Amino acid sequence: xxxxxxxxxxxSGKEPTVEKLLEYDRKIKELDELKEKNAKLESDSQNxxxxxSSDNPQQRDKRxxxxxxKKSGRKPGGQPGHKGSNRELIPVEEVDDVISCYxxxxxxxxxxxxxxxxxxxxxxxxxxQVEIPPIEPVVIEYQVFTLCGKCAEAHRGCLxxxxxxxxxxxxxxxxxxxxxxxxxxxxxxxxxxFETLLGVRxxxxxxxxxxxxxxxxxxxxxxxLKQALPKEAVLGADETGxxxxxxxxxxxxxxxYFHVAKSRASLVLKEILGEIYxxxxxxxxxxxxxxxxxxxxxxxxxxxxRNFEGFKKLGEKIECAEAxxxxxxxxxxxxxxxxxxxxxxxxxxxxxxxxxxSKHIRYExxxxxxxxxxxxxxxxxxxxxxLLKLNSNLFTFILHEGVDPTNNFSERGIRPAVxxxxxxxGNRSDAGAVLTSRLLTATRTCWLxxxxxxxxxxxxxxxxxxxxxxxxxxEQSR
Length: 478
What we know:
Oligomer: single chain
Strand order of the largest sheet: 5-4-3-6-7
């Protein structure tokens, strides 16, 4: 609109002028909303809660181009002065074979030395090579005979219960579960791997039957860990999509518990942790957690870091100086807070000093959120208001032992499951969802406790087939 058009509008009277101004106001709001949506579409794992796997190549290339990080000019790999790690030699008495190597002729005098030990100088150079011989399956045949007593009545012998349950042994059954859950191998690839590597032919139906049996064997372990969860003082939790379902993870001090559910709502938390959980939950800002848990929370500062980065990017997109200033101020306060936390972790500060030195930062965070709550900018006001409601849950890690400021451990714990999802695309049936939950719980807990997951599966399946008590994963976590 130019000056003449504005004057004509003014002269047209009150009603046309008001209507035109309201129309312009609507268009401005629509434009602002469009800019916000475009900014959200350009969000990635660096400025939002999106996982890194959702980033497209263009976003990664753009980050590299815009990065302020300068190339060091060093070659890839270990740098000069780096302490390397070498494979330690096995004691001689534990090796399977020793082959002695002697020089055939002296390079100076050309005298033939042979293998006379009297000419040996010092200790030999030891070099060990590890090899795997061809793997051949062991087939055991059980022959059941029928005997006839004096009364002429025939009686047939019985197979051992642990043998009658399957044509395949416990270790082979455990390997199918290990290949599936840890190595993320599909059913068809399990069949090929077993035939190629182990010389065992398996039908797809047999593989599925063995997995279902493994799921039944893991039921006591699953029940034991689920019952232990509500008793834990501190729990980390996270969730991710699982093809029309949701995979939840709960990380305790000594174990991980997985659960595949049809919902992402707080009902799942009630199912797993009970109506009321009395401990501290370390989570992101997903509404299901705040709706369920009315006790102490620790909101993940790693998520907040990405939120602040995303909010700054949004401010730049919609040309909102106040949003940019708010995001930068919150980011500076976060860095100061984390600097204190790292000093505490390194032993430079004790708990009392951490609490005292963080007082001013905590006050500044709350003050900044209160100022943002009264902002005329809608995006700043909404973000600050939501975060201010959680202000008391931002600093739980400062005041309580055993609480981390981030939920990174839960995210790292669930990452292998996300990799598996990209191959298996989730589960179609409820039984498959239960199998996934139990296999992940067992194998990831073994990883956490530095316990051999395959051997645990073997012992669990043996106990199941012999009707013995199942091995526990809680024994070493207390």
